[in-house]
Amino acid sequence: MPHKEIHLLEHLKNDLLEAGCDEAGRGPLAGPVFAAAVILPEGFLNPLLNDSKQMSRKNRDILRVIIEKEAIAWAVSSVTAGEIDKINILNASILGMQNAVRALKTKPDFLLIDGNRFRPFDCFLADDYKTVVKGDATFASIAAASVLAKTYRDEYMGKIAIEYPQYGWERNMGYPTKEHIEAIRKYGYTPYHRKSFHPKELEPLLF
Prior knowledge:
This protein has a single domain, classed as Nucleotidyltransferase, domain 5 (2-Layer Sandwich). It has 6 helices and 5 strands. It has helices at 57-70, 81-87, 89-103, 140-163, 169-172, 178-187, and strands spanning 18-24, 33-39, 73-79, 110-114, 129-132. A 5-stranded mixed sheet has the order 3-2-1-4-5, with helices on both faces. A hairpin with an 8-residue loop joins strand 1 (18-24) and strand 2. Helix 2 (81-87) crosses helix 3. The chain is globular. The N and C termini lie far apart (52 Å).
């Protein structure tokens, strides 16, 4: 089968240093949400790069090494399940991306944000960023951020799966699979579970 050619845009504003931002883990029942910010060098091209959800785990792991080596700057941040419960998943996702930008060793001039919601922070005003629906399939920097956010989150879920092996987090990454829901029914919730986001039928187990 021929390899599908992927066309990602390098820039929105050619005269500014842009950072792409994305998150991973908005929909799971357990674990943090992870976010990443990446500033790519001029002319960065890799045929494997795409929205991380469309890539194999092997290719994501390969690209993570390349991105970390070749990016002008990159950073990853996470927001815990407890914090998600306090401020909700949308605000946690935005906070994670903001913190990833704050952690960049090189300050960008402009931000490309995956999705349709963000807010000004620090010195970044509304004119200093643009939200892009399906941005991880549109701009290379957002796609790179999606790869880092996804691989770091998957790695984290694999680690906490050792602590709570009965939930299968190394396979389901905390998402509401049949296996995961059945494990909650049998063993209850853990400190890594999001209490504010759960299937209706599991609600009695929270109390």
